[in-house]
Amino acid sequence: MSENTTYSAWAWPPPQLGIDRAAAVIAPPDPDAEPLMLLNPRVISASAETDEQYEGCPSFFDARGLVPRPLKLEVAHTRLHGRQVVAVLQLYTDRMREGVHPIPVEDYRGTGQAWT
């Protein structure tokens, strides 16, 4: 089975949690759609075309750096019911309005301020 949808994602690396497994939950752009859960995901193909945007780290809120990401990935993973599938994922910028670009963290309001 192949799932071809554009998603945005957030995942926590399992080695940092001391777990010998991996999981990622991906939120589709449609707010009414179910999130996609990938268990033990493995990239099997990545496009040569990339996009480079500023990304941060949950451990260091004010630290950002430019990170290149492929525009398209094929990810083999297991579904909750145990079936092996391949998801085709496309970079989130497909959802941005034309002419709108992500901005560096220095341009965010409140950078460097304490979270209270």
UniProtKB/TrEMBL annotation:
Concerning its family, UniProt says: Belongs to the polypeptide deformylase family.
Q: Which domain of life is it from?
A: Bacteria
Q: Which residues form a coiled coil?
A: none
Entries under Gene3D superfamilies matching the protein? Peptide deformylase (3.90.45.10)
Species for this entry: Actinomadura monticuli
Mind telling me which InterPro entries this protein's record contains?
Answer: Peptide_deformylase, Peptide_deformylase_sf
A Pfam family matched in the record? Pep_deformylase
Q: What is this protein called?
A: Peptide deformylase
